[in-house]
Amino acid sequence: MDLTNDKKDVVILGIESSCDDTSAAVIRNGVLLSNVTASQAVHENFGGVVPELASRAHEQNIVPVVDQALKQAGVDKSDLSAIAFTRGPGLMGSLLVGVSFAKGMARALGIPMVDVNHLQGHVLAHFIDEKDVERAKPSFPFLCLLVSGGNSQIVLVKAYNDMQVIGQTIDDAAGEAIDKCSKVMGLGYPGGPIIDRLARQGNPKAFTFSRPNIPGYDYSFSGLKTSFLYFLRDQLKEDPQFIEHHKEDLAASLEYAVVDILMKKLRLAVKDLGIRQVAVAGGVSANTGLRNAFYDYAKRYHWEVFIPKFGFTTDNAAMIAITGYYKYLDGDFCSIDKPAFSRVAL
Fold first, then answer.
1. Tens-place pLDDT, residues 13-26
2. How many domains does the chain have?
3. 84 in Cβ contact with 321 (< 8 Å)
4. Residue 3 domain-assigned?
5. 147 contacts: CB under 8 Å, gap ≥ 6
6. Residue 4 confidence (pLDDT)
């Protein structure tokens, strides 16, 4: 395989299939040309992602999604410099679909592959350029709060290819806790957007839930989740309609507690390291309460904050393509024998 590309333009096809979204994106010289995502509504009926169904849906979606991404970008597959793909972490069955497709397409075209860590992709989503769109980017080093359904981490980002996790959850992730509490309330899945919508109408200080006392920059959300569950159990004994009568205040109080836990540890890291460039990434970064907290902390503590576009918060191939672009420039390619991985540190 020829790992060089003498074309003037560097054109990267990114493929993301780590969970329940099949996504493909095309980036030329760092500028996003297309970003197509097919979501899977079937999981709503089960209150969470069913791995078997997710992998089958990826098999159905990946060819049309990639085809659409190329067409929207106005790019022929012969123009591609490399294919970047999410190698992990994620659901193994889902990852295998994207990894296998990327390997087959790269081998057929005779172009290199670039494997991308899904979490690194979330962080580098801040560096996606769009035509005619001006967006500030953090400069190195900066701190990034990476929060999603499966991860809650504080990352020290020294360079595109040099990141260090300095704090992370020791149990549940923030998004996972929100989803589980939403499920206990009978609000449906995914819980994050539902809690966000209800919280806008409620009193964030109506109810108080326990906060963990974890040393350093690490997080814990299992205690909050248990406190929320026991509180509901006790209240429902007195009023079987308690959730229905107070769902807005419950959502607002839950969101307030989660955001408070996240921001206090992040502020501690900023204070200790003296780094005031602070970014947020991951699916939970779409939460209105968390975004408002970032703006509030920016004013109070003189941070320079970076909040991604909503379309780049959840799983998407644009973040995989931009990460692949930087790795391509470094000549950091992936051999065809590298397998997908379900769990790994950043």
1. 999 999 888 999 99
2. 2
3. yes
4. no
5. 153, 173, 174, 175, 262, 280, 281, 282, 283, 284, 285, 290
6. 46
